[in-house]
């Protein structure tokens, strides 16, 4: 569990897509407001994501808020444990594919173990997709809040609306959630709702599959959460997180070796590392500038070129994940000789 003092990490609060310093040693050992970010894959993120948690981290750091993200997990979903930003507090309580109903069996233990001052919970997408009714979802929220308060009667709660186009009845459920928050809120333990399903949230721009956020969508989710934290007195000024466009920028790099007068290009590792759905590659003769670009490929993870004229070749990759397409990644140069 890593603790953070915003003033010592202000360097991380540059552009929304900027990579932070490598490693966790930059986190200062100091106390601050304990924030547990809970949810499903929208909160956990996938390999090859920044995540909205990182965007929130950047803003709290910029505003010099002493804080500590807490929770039982640190990794994104996918298996390679690869975020697009490093050197930040990745602790969280999110699990891809989970439901609010499933987490009713875990929240008491997580509250006891991590004692958050603030609990930010974005659930409901998978509940609604699995056929849970609006009324049943509200009952689950009631139980979740009650269990959290049983451990920390003064916990502050930020609940998140459902935005997924695949979640049935999510508009009515969001309206019911806002009404429930008013009913459950107390001066000691306020309950507020992050306005995620707002007109500003564009499923085409802010998600890549009508559910999971693009880097641009991450900034809007973090903005809405931070606005509620400001209302609770945790953030001292108006948050400035949302960006009109943030590119997806995995540094995909090929493994290239020369075999005779051919090049063998492999991209299996980098495809898995950044959870790319499709890849394509190009190789360029450095002297002549002649370039060959392959079609997008979902299933193949390597190829061998035909015999190439002698010379130096630059090989680079490009990745896509549904509607997101990266820039061309770092190039690898190999020399092809006559023999």
From TrEMBL:
List the InterPro entries hit by this protein, alphabetically. Ester_Hydrolysis_Enzymes, SGNH_hydro, SGNH_hydro_sf
Tell me the organism's taxonomic lineage.
Bacteria, Bacillati, Actinomycetota, Actinomycetes, Propionibacteriales
Signal peptide annotation: 1-28
Q: Does the keyword Ribosomal protein apply?
A: no
- Keyword line: Signal
Name it: SGNH hydrolase-type esterase domain-containing protein
SUPFAM superfamilies (UniProt xref): SGNH hydrolase
Q: Which domain of life is it from?
A: Bacteria
* Positions of the SGNH hydrolase-type esterase domain: 38-218
**Phosphoprotein is among the record's keywords:** no
Alphabetical list of Gene3D superfamilies matching this protein: SGNH hydrolase (3.40.50.1110)
Any GO MF annotation of the entry: phosphatidylcholine lysophospholipase activity
């Amino acid at each position: 569990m890593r603790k953070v003092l915003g003033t010592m990490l202000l360097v991380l609060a540059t552009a929304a897509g900027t990579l932070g310093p490598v490693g966790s040693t930059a986190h200062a050992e100091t106390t601050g407001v304990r924030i547990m970010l809970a949810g499903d894959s929208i909160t956990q993120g996938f390999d090859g994501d920044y995540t909205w948690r990182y965007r929130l981290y950047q803003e709290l750091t910029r505003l010099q808020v002493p804080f500590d993200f807490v929770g039982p997990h640190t990794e994104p979903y996918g298996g390679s444990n690869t975020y697009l930003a490093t050197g930040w507090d990745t602790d969280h309580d999110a699990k891809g594919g989970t439901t609010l109903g499933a987490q009713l069996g875990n929240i008491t233990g997580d509250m006891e173990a991590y004692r958050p001052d603030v609990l930010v919970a974005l659930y409901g997408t998978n509940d609604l997709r699995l056929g849970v009714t609006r009324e049943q979802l509200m009952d689950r929220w009631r139980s979740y809040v009650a269990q959290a308060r049983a451990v920390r009667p003064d916990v502050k709660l930020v609940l998140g609306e459902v935005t997924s186009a695949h979640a049935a009845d999510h508009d009515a459920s969001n309206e019911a959630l806002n009404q429930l928050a008013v009913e459950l809120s107390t001066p000691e333990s306020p309950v507020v709702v992050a306005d995620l399903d707002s007109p500003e949230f564009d499923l085409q721009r802010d998600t890549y599959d009508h559910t999971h956020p693009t880097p641009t969508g991450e900034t809007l989710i973090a903005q809405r959460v931070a606005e509620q934290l400001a209302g609770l007195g945790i953030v001292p000024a108006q948050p400035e997180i949302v960006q009109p466009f943030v590119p997806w920028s995995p540094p995909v790099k090929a493994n290239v070796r020369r075999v005779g007068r051919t090049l063998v290009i492999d991209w299996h590792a980098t495809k898995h590392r950044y959870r790319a759905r499709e890849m394509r590659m190009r190789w360029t003769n450095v002297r002549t500038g002649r370039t060959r670009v392959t079609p997008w490929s979902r299933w193949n993870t390597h190829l061998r070129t035909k015999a190439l004229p002698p010379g130096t070749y630059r090989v680079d990759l490009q990745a896509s994940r549904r509607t997101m397409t990266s820039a061309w990644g770092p190039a690898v140069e190999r020399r092809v000789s006559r023999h």
